[in-house]
Amino acid sequence: MQEEEEKERQALLAQRVQKYIDSDWRTLSDNKTLLHLSLMEHRNAFSVGIRNRFPSLSVVQLLLSCQAPINAIDNNHYTPLHNFACNKFEKLTKEEWNDIKKIFDLLIDSGAHLDATAQGKTSKDCTQHENLKSLFRIYPN
Questions:
Q1: Which among 11, 12, 10, 62 is positioned nearest to 37, based on CA atoms?
Q2: What are the tens digits of pLDDT across the range 71-114?
Q3: Hey, which residues does 42 pair with through a beta bridge?
């Protein structure tokens, strides 16, 4: 019974997220999509009793499964991949780094444009962390 209830809960969540994505919901200040926001680094940004670190693999997977626009641009012409690449990723555990790599691969596999530019910079140009730079080296621009 609990498994069935969990499936129903997940389906309801996906429906609600799909409505936000279909409505092209964006922040007022800088025109970011839910995918942009989910890829920005922060911890416990919302006090809802859930401890989470962003970027979050499960959130990104959910958004992409609901066809979140992978190459949407914000007011600064940043794509979600730009937002992801700009993170500093300090003090991550090995498990967290594994999730970062999975998120990167998921973005690329979902069609994120490596050659998209914002203010003359690709997402690779924005990358600050050596481990993330090494991931970008795998993919040619």
A1: 62
A2: 999 999 999 999 999 998 888 889 999 999 999 999 999 999 99
A3: 54
pTM listed for this prediction: 0.85
The pair of three-digit structure tokens given for residue 80, joined into one six-digit string: 């979600």
- Provide the pairing of β-strand 53-54 with 42-43: antiparallel
Q: What is the CATH number of domain 2-138?
A: 1.25.40.20
